[in-house]
Amino acid sequence: MRYFFFRLETYFHPPQTDTRALLTTASSTKHIMQQNEHDLAEFKLFTNSKFDPVQVLSRLLQSTNVLDDTELDLETAAKKLHFDAKECTRRIRAITAAHNSELTNNVAVISTYSEHVLQNIVPQANRIETAYQRINNEVVRPYEDATRLQSALKAIHATLALLRGAGIFLLFVRQLQDCEKAHGSSDDPKDALRLAKLIKNFLQIYSHDVLSPHGGPDLTSLEIVRGYQSTVQSKAAKFVSELKTKVVHELGHHTSFNAQKSTLQNNLLALYELDEAQLFVLVEDAIQNSVKVVLVSLLRSLQSQRNLAVNFNDVNLTARSFIASMSGLLDNCTPSSSDQPSAKTLLRRLEDHLGRTEEPSLAGFYWLKMAKLYKKNILAILAKGGPVARNLTNNRLQIVESVQAVFEVPGRDYLVDSLGILSNHQLATAQKELRRNSYCNESTHNKRIHDVQSL
């Protein structure tokens, strides 16, 4: 590269004799221009660097015409321009004749440099042009072609990705239609779970762009995909409502539902796939309903302590049966979601959910609800007063001993805690609480009368 620039500098460097002649000629030319500069004052309008023929012609016509005339005089302006042209030609000839020797020397120097350029610089420039064309043909153009091909390849890949996503989407549509038909006509309990997973996959297409690659085209830009979204959402809502009805009906038999029933298990798993929170709400409602039913027998024992142990045994057996059935049912259901690969059963997931707010176990949650309702009903009995309330207070120790003898942890601890309000030192606190309770309307009325009388 250094050699190339050295050679280029050599070819561009003019001979010493020609340089001296060029300087002499340039000095002479400058002297001629300075000598004749005052002679060009009248042509200043034409020698201006910002010369505009339209403006010059406009000024010329304005100077050769009268505004009040109805005719436009072009002849006078044309004569003036012809005169100026002849005058310029005459002066050029005069300058040439007066400075003949300087012009001759200048032409000779220019001829010398022209010959130097033609003999030395032009061949080198041609070689440079040839090298540039070679680089352009062998490097630049192939690179530009490759860049265009790469852009075309990206566009092709994007189109193929969109086509692939559309094909998978149509396959899902076909599978969804077939699964809906099978679910309506077949007795296979697994059809509900398959249908729920297909609907969930559809919903993920719209929420997570599953079929759209990172940075690729959005599958929802296709009208067929975008228009099917409302259909899928409608199908999902309808299927969730159907599953809720079936699960509520099955769990409504709180003492006799079958934990091994595959239809119920698959319905629970299907509902978990589509609406996890709704499933937990239904299970909590089922527990609450069972608690209310068992609570009737538990409260019956408070009316009469003769069959206290028998009633407590019945309550304990019924509650344990429900807890065992519900635990077994949920423990036999293991979701296989791709986003939750750990093998957690529905029972474990429910207990994780319950542990965020209350008791982190199904049995503990059951007895906690039971104890709260039990305590509320005891408060109601105490509010009414009478022989039943006195009987409860007098037989508090017997009731507590029976609870400790019959029930197991955690039910025993929760029930004993509820019975603690029967103790003498807690009775006054319980009575104050009753005045604020919605069960004690009569005491609230009496309090208002007392307040009015005090005024």
Automatic annotation (TrEMBL):
UniProt key word Iron-sulfur: no
Membrane association type: Peripheral membrane protein
Pfam short name (any one): COG5_C
Transmembrane domains' residue ranges: none
Keywords carried by this UniProt record: Golgi apparatus, Membrane
Record GO cellular component, one term: Golgi membrane
Location in the cell: Golgi apparatus membrane
Domain Conserved oligomeric Golgi complex subunit 5 helical stretches: 219-407
Top-level taxon of origin: Eukaryota
Boundaries of every Conserved oligomeric Golgi complex subunit 5 N-terminal domain copy: 46-176
Primary localization: Golgi
Coiled coil: none
GO biological process: intra-Golgi vesicle-mediated transport
Protein name: Conserved oligomeric Golgi complex subunit 5
Species whose genome carries this gene: Metschnikowia bicuspidata
